[in-house]
From TrEMBL:
Its EC number is 7.1.1.-. Composed of 13 different subunits. Subunits NuoCD, E, F, and G constitute the peripheral sector of the complex. NCBIfam families: nuoF_fam (TIGR01959), PRK11278.1 (NF008436). It is an enzyme of class 7 (translocase). Its cofactor is FMN; [4Fe-4S] cluster. It holds the Pfam family Complex1_51K. This is NADH-quinone oxidoreductase subunit F. It catalyses: a quinone + NADH + 5 H(+)(in) = a quinol + NAD(+) + 4 H(+)(out). Belongs to the complex I 51 kDa subunit family. It comes from Pseudomonas flexibilis. Residues 346-391 form the NADH-ubiquinone oxidoreductase 51kDa subunit iron-sulphur binding domain. Keywords: 4Fe-4S, Flavoprotein, FMN, Iron, Iron-sulfur, Metal-binding, NAD, Quinone, Translocase. InterPro entries: NADH-UbQ_OxRdtase_51kDa_CS, NADH-UbQ_OxRdtase_suF, Nuo51_FMN-bd, Nuo51_FMN-bd_sf, Nuop51_4Fe4S-bd, Nuop51_4Fe4S-bd_sf.
C-alpha cells in the first residue's frame, strides 16, 4: 500500500494551524531535511522551551494539553512524564522512542520517520529537556531500513548544527541521541521488553513495579514514548495548550489530531491526519472513498490487529478512545481495516493468531501455550475438521488470556479480535465442525 499524505485537495490555508504533524510534508514524498525544516518554523519550539520554560513548565503544558500515547495504549503523556523522580541527583536519565512499529495493519510512524525526521528529533529534544534526560535512543524496527538511513542523516545534520551534543543552542542543556535497530520482535512494542532488548538481553517484559520511570534502562530513570506522541510535542509548546485542545471535535475525550487510516478493499487506502472525534463512517467514506465496486463491508477493526471487530452499524462511532469503547473495543493505533464479505473470518483469525503466537516471548504460560492452541483449533475449523467443543475452548481461551491474566498485554490484544469474531460470526466457526463430529453429538448439519 502506498502511504498517503495531505495532497493539494486536502490542504487548507495555514495548514500548520490544523495539521501540526503533517503540514510540512512534501508533495514528492521526499524527506524534509534540516534547512527546509528550519524555514518552516522548525526548532522554534525547542528554542522556546529552552529559553522560556522550565522543565516542570513543559511537563505541565503537555499534561494540560491532554496529549495521550499514540502507540495504542493511550496513557496520558504528561502524567507519564511526571512519574520521573523529582530528585535529579541520579543524573543519568534516558528517553527512549518506541519506533518498533510491528502491529499488523499499522504504518503511521513510518511516514513520520521517513518524511519528517527532524520533527521527531525536535520532539525528543524538548521531551528530554523536560525530563532532564541526557541520552536518548530511537528503538527502530529493523525492517525499516529507509527510516534508519533517513534518521541517521537527520541526526548528523542536527549535530553539525549544534542541535545535539553539548550546550544545545547555548542553553547549557546536553543531549545525545542515537538510532538503535531491533532484531524484529513484536514484543518489543512493550516498553520493558524494549528496554531489555536495548540492553542486549532477551526481549521479555519485566515485572512492574518497579516502573521504568524509577528503574529503567541500565537501572536508571527512563521514559518510553511512541514516535507519533513525541512528534506532537513541538506544536504544543509553540502554539499553546488551548490551541492544541481545540483541534479535536466537540465531545472527544482525546485532544489534538491523530494519524488515522483505512486499508482493505477500499477505493483509496491511505493515511491522514484528522481531528479526534470524527466518525469512522467519515473516515471510510470521505477519506478512504468507501468500499471498492463489487465489495461489501462485512466488518472492520478500528486500530490494528489487536483490536476487536466491529460491524457496519458501528461506523457512526466517533474515533476517540471513549467513542470506540462505547461500541465494545479500543481505538488502538487508529489505523482501521475494512473486511469485505468475501473473507472467511475463520481464515482471517487463523492468520492473525499465527502471528501473535509466533511473536509471543514465551515468558508466561497462558500466552506461550494458549495462543498456539487457538491456532491449532482455528486450523481444524478452517479445514472443516473441528469439533463442537472447539468453540467452547476458543471462548475459554479468550477469557483465560484476557486483561490482567497474563504477564503483559500481548495475549489480551491477541484474543480481542478472536472474541469479537466469535460474538458476531459464530455461525462461520460452527460451519467448520466436521460432519462426523456433528453426528456423534446428534447435531443437525447446517
Amino acid at each position: 500500500m502506498k502511504l498517503a499524505s495531505l495532497g493539494p485537495a486536502n490542504r487548507v490555508p495555514r495548514a500548520e494551524d490544523t495539521h501540526p504533524l503533517t503540514w510540512r510534508l512534501r508533495e514528492d514524498g521526499e524527506p524534509v531535511w534540516l534547512d527546509e525544516y528550519r524555514r518552516t518554523n522548525g526548532y522554534q519550539a525547542l528554542r522556546k522551551a529552552l529559553d522560556e520554560l522550565t522543565p516542570a513548565a513543559t511537563v505541565q503544558a503537555v499534561k494540560d494539553s491532554g496529549l495521550k500515547g499514540r502507540g495504542g495504549a493511550g496513557f496520558p503523556t504528561g502524567v507519564k512524564w511526571s512519574l520521573m523522580p523529582a530528585d535529579d541527583t541520579r543524573n543519568i536519565r534516558y528517553l527512549l522512542c518506541n519506533a518498533d512499529e510491528m502491529e499488523p495493519n499499522t504504518w503511521k510512524d513510518r511516514l513520520l520517520m521517513e518524511q519528517l525526521p527532524h520533527l521527531l528529533v525536535e520532539g525528543m529534544l524538548i521531551s528530554a529537556h523536560a525530563l532532564r534526560a541526557g541520552r536518548g535512543y530511537i528503538f527502530l524496527r529493523g525492517e525499516y531500513v529507509d527510516a534508519a538511513r533517513i534518521l541517521n542523516r537527520a541526526l548528523a545534520e542536527a549535530r553539525d548544527a549544534g542541535l545535539l551534543g553539548r550546550n544545545i543552542l547555548g542553553s547549557g542543556f546536553d543531549f545525545e541521541l542515537f538510532v538503535h535497530t531491533g532484531a524484529g520482535r513484536y514484543i518489543c512494542g512493550e516498553e520493558t521488553a524494549l528496554i531489555n532488548s536495548l540492553e542486549g538481553r532477551r526481549a521479555n517484559p519485566r515485572a512492574k513495579p518497579p516502573f521504568p520511570a524509577s528503574v529503567g534502562a541500565w537501572g536508571r530513570p527512563t521514559c518510553v514514548n511512541n514516535v507519533e506522541t513525541l512528534c506532537n510535542v513541538p506544536a504544543i509548546i509553540l502554539h499553546g495548550v488551548d490551541w492544541y485542545r481545540s483541534l479535536a471535535r466537540s465531545g472527544s475525550d482525546d485532544m489534538g489530531t491523530k494519524l488515522m487510516g483505512f486499508s482493505g478493499r477500499v477505493r483509496t487506502p491511505g493515511l491522514w491526519e484528522l481531528p479526534f472525534g470524527i466518525s469512522a463512517r467519515e473516515l471510510l467514506e470521505t477519506h478512504a472513498g468507501g468500499m471498492r465496486d463489487g465489495h461489501k463491508l462485512k466488518c472492520w477493526q478500528p486500530g490494528g490487529a489487536g483490536t476487536g471487530f466491529l460491524l457496519p452499524e458501528h461506523l457512526d462511532a466517533a474515533m476517540h478512545a471513549g467513542g470506540i469503547a462505547a461500541v465494545g473495543t479500543r481505538m488502538g493505533t487508529g489505523l482501521a481495516l475494512a473486511v469485505d464479505a468475501s473473507v472467511s473470518m475463520v481464515s482471517l483469525l487463523r492468520n492473525m493468531e499465527e502471528f501473535f503466537a509466533r511473536e509471543s516471548c514465551g515468558w508466561c504460560t497462558p500466552c506461550r501455550d494458549g495462543l498456539p492452541w487457538s491456532v491449532k483449533i482455528l486450523r481444524a475449523l478452517e479445514q472443516g475438521q473441528g469439533t463442537p467443543e472447539d468453540l467452547q475452548v476458543l471462548g475459554e481461551l479468550v477469557e483465560f488470556l484476557g486483561p490482567g491474566k497474563t504477564f503483559c498485554a500481548h495475549a489480551p490484544g491477541a484474543v480481542e479480535p478472536l472474541g469479537s469474531a466469535l460474538k458476531y460470526f459464530r455461525d462461520e466457526f460452527k460451519a467448520g465442525i466436521a460432519p462426523s463430529a456433528r453426528a456423534r453429538r446428534g447435531l443437525a448439519q447446517t
